[in-house]
Amino acid sequence: MIIRLEKWEDVKAIRNVTEQAFGRPQEADIIDALRANNRVILSLVAVHEDVVAGHILFFPVNIESEHRTFAAIGLGPMAVLPQYQKQGIGSALVREGLDMLQQQFKSAVIVLGHAEFYPRFGFVPASSHGIKTTYDIPGDVFMVRELCPGALAKIRGTVIYSEEFDEA
Description:
Number of domains: 1
CATH topology: Aminopeptidase
CATH class: Alpha Beta
CATH architecture: 3-Layer(aba) Sandwich
Strand content: 25-35%
Mean pLDDT: 95
Shape: globular
Low-confidence stretches: none
CATH superfamily: Gcn5-related N-acetyltransferase (GNAT)
Largest sheet: 9 strands, mixed
């Protein structure tokens, strides 16, 4: 398996992976809208025997407080074809994405995802840093990871997702 940057010819395969993994089109619609609006920071695919078996996307988000706005990075959707799940592809995508981002950014990554999966990559409940979301979701699935130690030391506020998430 290799992990590489998304190419234009991967777009249909990414949509297929995402729809199959989630069992619905909404997450794929978000990816397409973010791509169309140039709101992608990093998009990686996992290729296994010439098949795009997995995909991960990172996009910009803001953490807004009364006094300032802090630029951060959102993670997701992350998807793996059902027949390739539980083989380490998702973990490899997360690790590679975080490694690449850590070399370029000094902020933090926000994820809305499985509370059992993401902590192994250093994610903690966002509430432990005084960060919340406008979505009505359980606190243990809304997580954050600093890319640079101390990046969130003085940051408190609400994560604001772009309109692509509201439309899907």
